[in-house]
Amino acid sequence: MLDEKEILKNILSGDRDAFGEIILKYQDFIFNLIKGYVKIEEEAKDITQDVFIRAYKGIEKFRGDSKLSSWLYRIAYNLSINWIKRKKIDEVEINEDMVENTTVTKDWYDKMFEKEMIFENLNKVIENLPQKYKIVIKLYYFEDRSYSEIAKILNIPLNTVKIQLLRAKKIMEKSLTS
């Protein structure tokens, strides 16, 4: 497989088939991202298609000053948020890691129950955050994005990302300690 720069060069020179490599590389990532926002698999599939249609139509606007994945993420984020606004859904759920091949003991069960309670409390606190804080928390902690990547994805200044993250953490801390 060619690297992204070569693929982009081929696309911009008129090779329509080259965009298929972009789709193959990112479709699962984009689908899972969108599904995390919209929660409905069929809607996530439709929005994923829309992301790649928009990306294909607007590929000449991609300047290359960020990762292609960040640009696609931004398109996916925008389309997901638009869908949420249309459907009036205001929910971002944290997916819990599944534990496999574990021997169940009372001690293990108690620890898992305690973790589950902490997870539920944390999830409730995150759900009650304003949408802009939820997104920043999710991108930073669950998507492992840097401040600068979040700023590019959300199209906001770097300092705004830092401030929103700080405010979100303060709100969460206050909620968890009260």
Which architecture of the largest domain would the CATH scheme give at its second level?
Orthogonal Bundle
Q: Provide the β-strand percentage band.
A: under 5%
Number of distinct helices: 8
Largest sheet: none
| Number of structural domains | 2
What is the subunit arrangement here?
Answer: single chain
Describe the structure concisely for a colleague.
With 178 residues, the chain is an all-alpha fold. The protein folds into two domains: 4-87, Rna Polymerase Sigma Factor, Chain: A, CATH 1.10.1740; 106-177, Winged helix-like DNA-binding domain superfamily/Winged helix DNA-binding domain (Arc Repressor Mutant, subunit A, Orthogonal Bundle). The protein has helices at residues 4-12, 19-38, 41-57, 68-87, 106-127, 131-142, 147-154, 158-177.
